[in-house]
Structures are given as structure tokens and as C-alpha cells.
Design goal:
Radius of gyration: 25 Å
Helix content: 40-55%
CATH superfamily of the largest domain: Spore Coat Polysaccharide Biosynthesis Protein SpsA, Chain A
Strand order of the largest sheet: 3-2-1-4-6-5-7
Bound molecules: uridine-5'-diphosphate, magnesium ion
Oligomer: single chain
Distance between the termini: 20 Å
Shape: elongated
CATH topology of the largest domain: Spore Coat Polysaccharide Biosynthesis Protein SpsA, Chain A
Largest sheet: 7 strands, mixed
CATH architecture of the largest domain: Alpha-Beta Complex
Number of strands: 7
Length: 311
């Protein structure tokens, strides 16, 4: 019998946990047929509601349910890492608790592994039910990422992914503090099969991602998987040096031909303002990478457990 671990990050999900469990155990016949032993590993990401109690209730009823609880909210990336570290399964899947990653897809995903793939990933083909502005920026983000990073990243890709043990171990070998799992999946490689599905609305509760949080997450992704912004700032620097050189030549020639008229200070002010803006922007880019390096160098733990675990 092989073990099959489902990692489920939860943050204030008291409403969705029971619904998720009911939906998940509908797959029991599938697990039995394939001789798989389910391990349902909930990661409580510092919830402040009764999520932990709800999961403990499930644990008392069903010994396949396990819980790791964080000392505070560390974010979904940390929760996924904790899950991967503690998963005992030969096969490991990461899924959201809100049923936006439909558990009914698991048998089809498992087929992929049987076909010889190392991982089966999923992507949504539409973003129905999402605010249009959020979809717009998400699409731009993936387009930019594809251009500036060497790592493959699919538009609409979810963290819902079934992996073999060797891929899990590869991901765990990347112990970076600034984690961007969507990039890490692509970076480690391995043969991946993509399944597509229609977007589903949350079963209950509300999304934990504000626009601002997503924006910060996208910066995280860019700095973690591309150094293109640093190159861009150097290119901008070279461009302005060249422009300045042309202007010097132009002014010398004009002086030689027409004398020295003392006008043009407004344009001067504009140019100074513009260039200093560009300078600040480039320093900002540098700062972003410095900040990431600083956090990396501190090598703080990615998450901390508290004592409410059930194993
Ligand atoms: N989540 C988490 N920690 C956080 C935010 C979210 O563990 O700080 C979990 C959440 O409980 C859910 C999953 O990550 O299982 C996806 O979150 P959500 O549904 O809010 O995101 P969306 O589907 O809107 O992108
Ligand atoms: Mg969701």
C-alpha cells in the first residue's frame, strides 16, 4: 500500500473545512481501488477563528486527518512548505480548502502519474467570478514573467498539483526564505502534465488575497525568479549617459555657431526632475534585491509550529 498525502493550507476557514472533508472522502473508492492510503494533512496558518477546532473534530473521527498549526499567520507559501516537509506520502498533492481545486479531479490526475509523468499540474482556463481588474493584472504578470524569467510559468496555473516523492524532495532541497512556489515548480523541472479546468467559486467564506497582497506577491515572484529589472536599470543608465553626451555636443555646436543665449532653465528643471526620478526608481529596484538578500542571509525559519498539532 502506498501513501497519498493531501496538503491543505487553511487560514480562517472554519466554514470550508467540513465541506472540504466531505467532498474529499467522496474519493475513498478511488483510493481503495488504487491501493492508496490517504493522509489528509491540514496546515493551520495561524487562524484566529475555530478552524483548528474544526480540524481536531475531524481528527477525532478519522485518523487519516492530521494537523500542523503555526504560531501565527506565515502565509500560504510557508504553509505549503511545512506540508511538503511533513508529508509522508509517496504521492503528494497540494490543494486549497475552499474547493477551488476540485477534489473530483484527483483520479484523473493520478492517471497522469501512472502514464509516467512526475507531476500533474492544473490550470484554470478562465477567471470567471473574479474581479476584471484582478484578472487583467494577473494576465499581465504572467506575460511579463514569461519574458523575463527562464522558468516556465503558465497563466492560470494553480498550486493544485500532484507530485511524486522525487519531485517533492527536489522542491524541499530549495530552502529559500522568499518562496514563490509557482516558480519553484517550474524551476525543478521534471515531466509535467497539464490538466485544464473551469474556474469554480469558493464553497464558502471569502478570499484572503487583497489586491495589495497580490501586488506584493508578484514583486516577490519577479525578484525571486528574474534579475531582468537589474539589467533594465543598467540599460536605462547607459541610455541616459548617451543622451547626455549628445546634448553636450549639441550645446557646444550651438554656442560656436550662435553665441550663448541664457534661456532654457525650465527645460533644465524638467530634465533634472526626470533623471532623478529614474535614479530613484533604479535605486528602488536595487533595494528590492538587497532586501530579499537581507532576508535570505538572516536565514530565519520559514514557519514556526505551536503545540496544537495532531499527528
Ligand atoms: N491561505 C493560507 N494562508 C494565507 C492565505 C491563504 O494558508 O495567509 C490558504 C487559504 O486558506 C486557502 C488557500 O490558501 O486554502 C487559497 O486562499 P484563497 O482561497 O483565499 O485564495 P484565492 O483562491 O482567492 O486565490
Ligand atoms: Mg480560493
Amino acid at each position: 500500500m502506498k501513501r497519498f498525502t493531501a496538503i491543505v493550507p487553511c487560514y480562517n476557514e472554519e466554514e470550508t473545512v467540513p465541506i472540504f472533508y466531505d467532498e474529499m472522502i467522496k474519493n475513498d473508492p478511488f483510493f481503495r481501488e488504487n491501493d492508496l492510503e490517504l493522509e489528509l494533512l491540514f496546515i493551520d496558518d495561524g487562524s484566529t477563528d475555530s478552524t483548528v477546532t474544526k480540524i481536531r473534530e475531524l481528527h477525532d473521527r478519522d485518523e487519516r486527518v492530521h494537523l500542523i498549526s503555526f504560531s501565527r499567520n506565515f502565509g500560504k507559501e510557508a504553509a505549503m512548505y511545512a506540508g511538503l516537509q511533513n508529508a509522508k506520502g509517496e504521492y503528494v498533492v497540494i490543494m486549497d480548502v475552499d474547493l477551488q481545486d476540485p477534489p473530483s479531479l484527483l483520479p484523473e490526475m493520478f492517471e497522469g502519474l501512472k502514464e509516467g509523468y512526475d507531476s500533474v499540474a492544473t490550470r484554470r482556463v478562465n477567471r470567471k467570478g473574479e474581479p476584471p481588474i484582478r484578472s487583467f493584472f494577473a494576465r499581465r504578470f504572467y506575460r511579463i514573467m514569461r519574458k523575463i524569467s527562464q522558468t516556465e510559468m503558465m497563466d492560470g496555473a494553480r498550486d493544485y498539483r500532484l507530485m511524486t516523492r522525487q519531485m517533492v524532495d527536489a522542491i524541499l532541497s530549495m530552502g529559500e526564505y522568499n518562496r514563490f512556489t509557482k516558480g519553484i515548480f517550474g524551476w525543478v523541472g521534471f515531466k509535467t502534465k497539464w490538466l485544464e479546468f473551469e474556474n469554480v467559486d469558493r464553497s464558502a467564506g471569502t478570499t484572503k488575497w487583497s489586491f495589495w497582497k497580490l501586488f506584493k506577491y508578484s514583486i516577490e515572484g519577479i525578484t525571486a525568479f528574474s534579475t531582468a529589472p537589474l539589467v533594465i536599470s543598467s540599460v536605462v543608465g547607459v541610455f541616459f549617459c548617451f543622451l547626455a553626451f549628445l546634448m553636450v555636443v549639441f550645446i557646444i555646436v550651438r554656442k560656436a555657431l550662435f553665441g550663448d543665449p541664457v534661456d532654457g532653465w525650465p527645460s533644465l528643471v524638467c530634465i533634472i526632475l526626470f533623471i532623478s526620478g529614474v535614479q530613484f526608481f533604479c535605486t528602488g529596484i536595487l533595494g528590492q534585491y538587497m532586501a530579499k538578500t537581507y532576508m535570505e542571509v538572516k536565514s530565519r525559519p520559514i514557519y514556526l509550529k505551536n503545540e496544537k498539532n495532531c499527528f
